[in-house]
Amino acid sequence: MHDVVVVGAGPVGLMLAAQLAQGGADVRVFERRAERSAHSRAIGIHPPSLDALAGVGVRDAVVAEGRRITAGVGRCGGRDLGTLPLTRVSPSHPFVITLPQNRTEELLEARLEQLSPGALRRGVGVRSATAGEDGMSVQTEDGGELSARFVVAADGGRSTLRDAAGIAVRRRTHPDTYLMGDFPDDTADGDLAVLYLEPGGVVESFPLPGGVRRWVARTSELESDPSADRLARLVEDRTGERLEASRNTMLSAFSVQRGIAERLGRGRLLLAGDAAHEVSPIGGQGMNLGWLDAAALAPLVLAALRDGTASRPGAGIDAAAFARYERDRLRAARRAALLSEANMALGRPSRGATLALRNATIRALVRTPVRGAVASAFAMRWS
Ligand SMILES: Cc1cc2nc3c(=O)[nH]c(=O)nc-3n(C[C@H](O)[C@H](O)[C@H](O)COP(=O)(O)OP(=O)(O)OC[C@H]3O[C@@H](n4cnc5c(N)ncnc54)[C@H](O)[C@@H]3O)c2cc1C
Fold first, then answer.
1. Is there a single domain that holds both residue 50 and residue 191?
2. How many whole angstroms from 83 Cα to the centroid of ligand 1?
3. Span 170-174, mean pLDDT?
4. Is residue 294 in contact with ligand 1, taking CB distance under 6 Å?
5. How far is the CA of 49 from the centre of ligand 1 (A)?
6. Which residue in 6, 273, 274, 294 has the fewest CB atoms around it within 10 Å?
7. Quick one: which atom of ligand 1 is closest to the CA of 37?
8. Interval 186-224: pLDDT, tens
9. Do residues 145 and 139 make contact, with C-beta atoms less than 8 angstroms apart?
10. Is residue 11 located within the same domain as residue 149?
């Protein structure tokens, strides 16, 4: 009987497993992929996540390797609309870090291996998890079977364990589509994140380590045959910035949706990360939201293991504490979804009087104290 089986070694499963192992739990992590995805996906790491990463001893490496963003700038037609400084959002971390998700996962995986050698089993998917009296029975896709007091489904937005447990997800599909790519950074923007709020649609640009910049452009439909040339053309037409298509290192076309589970567990099966809530990547909150789930869930699981409740038939995590966890994390997910949706709305094509009004509103807002609240929301100070 293991203490916890974590299904999925994405950033959230790895973080949770490291937290549990550090707290003395006997953890197993199953990951269907034999190799870590090389896709850079999530890049933004916000101050509350840096605090959580510090708790498992990974923050210093992330900060040392990552790029510090200290402000975001809104631009339109070659002129700055305003600047949002991020230096006041957190005394311990007056910045947002960017680091490609595959590298962040590598650091978390190395830490888990230090804390609990061999805990991660790659290339082994979990087929099902069934509830027993004092634990769960886990069936793997290679025919194996094992038991654990708790199972955490950190198996992503299409979580099969969540669906098999009959936990419904409220979904909403958005009309927005994007083309995203990484290129050598030839801009003069240094450590600034830039939002080009142009008539044809938004272009976002973020510095990454190694002299690279991530570009994300809104498209009118999902690109069926995405190319670096197409992204470079969109960026140049809207912003005047020239990207060298031949030096593109990552390219992805994506559409977006919201999917929030109606509850975060059933019995001893618990949900965390995208399995619990998927939000639009525009706004850069999904991975961070999942890490904050992990930071809140790990102490509850550890407490149940320590005080013996976990081994009592029919028991599990303290019901009142779990209800608070569920309420707080679902609220944080809805807020993150709303913020990303506001972000997407801001970046839709806009012309004439509507564009002028939008720009005037942004210029006025960044001169008021609202600026601090907006910066805190983007940096997830409320999560
Ligand atoms: C283009 C893009 C850009 C993004 N940018 C940002 C950003 O800047 N900031 C941010 O915070 N978020 C961002 N996100 C969102 C972020 O990538 C996700 O929120 C994050 O990866 C969720 O982590 P997770 O561990 O919950 O799930 P995942 O990363 O999806 O990991 C789930 C893992 O479970 C494994 N798995 C699935 N089923 C099984 C099974 N049955 N058995 C075993 N293993 C299984 C999968 O192989 C996978 O490795 C972005 C997403 C995209 C697509």
1. no
2. 30
3. 94
4. no
5. 16
6. 274
7. 49
8. 999 999 999 999 999 999 999 999 999 999 999 999 999
9. yes
10. yes
> Token pair for residue 239?
């912003």
Distance 14 CA to ligand 1 centre (A): 11
How far is the C-alpha of 122 from the C-alpha of 62, rounded, in Å? Answer: 23
Q: How far, in Å, from the CA of 273 to the mean position of ligand 1?
A: 8
Average pLDDT score over residue span 300-312: 91
Domain end point (choices 223, 256, 289): 256
Asked whether the whole model's pTM tops 0.70, one would answer yes
Token code pair at residue 325: 């966890």
Q: Is 161 found in the same domain as 275? A: yes
Ligand 1 atom index nearest CA of 206: 8
Q: Which atom of ligand 1 is nearest to the CA of 275?
A: 26
Question: What distance in angstroms lies between residue 307's CA and the mean position of ligand 1's atoms?
Answer: 32
Together in a domain, 336 and 282: yes
Q: Are 114 and 36 within one domain?
A: yes
Is the pLDDT at 378 greater than 90? The verdict is no
- Residue range 327-346: average pLDDT? 94
Q: Which long-range contacts (CB under 8 A, 24 or more apart) does 132-135 make?
A: 133/313, 133/314, 134/311, 134/312, 134/313, 134/314, 134/315, 135/1, 135/268
Q: How confident is the model at residue 58 (pLDDT cuts 50, 70, 90)?
A: very high
The residue contributing the CA closest to ligand 1 atom 42 is 125
The domain that holds 303 is classified in CATH as: 3.50.50.60
